[in-house]
Amino acid sequence: MLTRLNDKWGLAIALFVSAATIAVAMAQDLPEPKPAPRLQVAPQAYKQASFQRDGVEITRYHFGAGLERPFLFPVVGPSGRSLTRMGHPHDPEGHSHHNSVWMSHVDVGGVDFWSDRRLGVVRHKRIVSYEDEGERSSVTAENEWVDSDGKILLNETRKISVVLLAGKEWLLMIDSTFTVKDKPVTLGKTPFGLLGVRMAKTIGVADGGGRIRNSEGGVNEKEVLWKQARWVDYSGPIENGVIEGITLFDHPSNPNHPSYFHVRNDGWMGASLTYDAPREVTPDKPLHVRYGLYVHSDMKPPTEIDSQWKRFAEIP
pTM (2 decimals)? Predict the structure, then answer.
């Protein structure tokens, strides 16, 4: 009996020593681990892509086939709450096209892509790439702007990038290049297009006591609406005792820089690419635009916003 016990203990010890030896050998063979990016863009189910900082989502790109247009929601501020919303707080049906952060235009070759009447639809074609660079991540997609008959009016390559800043602040950049194949397409003269932002209800001037400001010193709708500026900021309360906001940057390379801005005290702001004149896209002359959204804490002084705008303007 004692001999059998000794044999069992001997076998157990031998197995343990063998396992430990194998584990040490395997550990020695492991390659040096690469650092995990602090910021990552992760593909999700149902045609979505989630931008995550330290594993926590700060924005999500929606591009499913049933949508009128791709959009970004939520847009999470430093406090952890979304600074944007879906739809108008007092007219959800009439403004169902207000999809947080989106791109559209009311007159593309005479076709309305702005409303939700499916006269024109920005249709996702394919994802070109996902890229993670540590403090910057991006997703590049191809879209087709089609009319109700399925005719492609514009081809678009859109790159959405997130750049991390200090103190849980961040920059969202949208680069879009529009091309046509056979004949020119005109984006008509209108204030409705190209980039829109629907702020959270509590940040609105009317509903929450927020404030709109621009780079030229204008304050609120009366002084900012239809005025040219390098940037427009919308800031206000996101929870009790907490002020946060988003600054919409116009890039100096955009064809109508400094842009005219479409703003309202009800929580709406947008950059109007064609407020002053129509823009034509031809086979030999694509249209490229870049916009930025600076997601920030507090109601930043204009000097700090100017500094961030200059940084944005210099990003390759």
Answer: 0.90
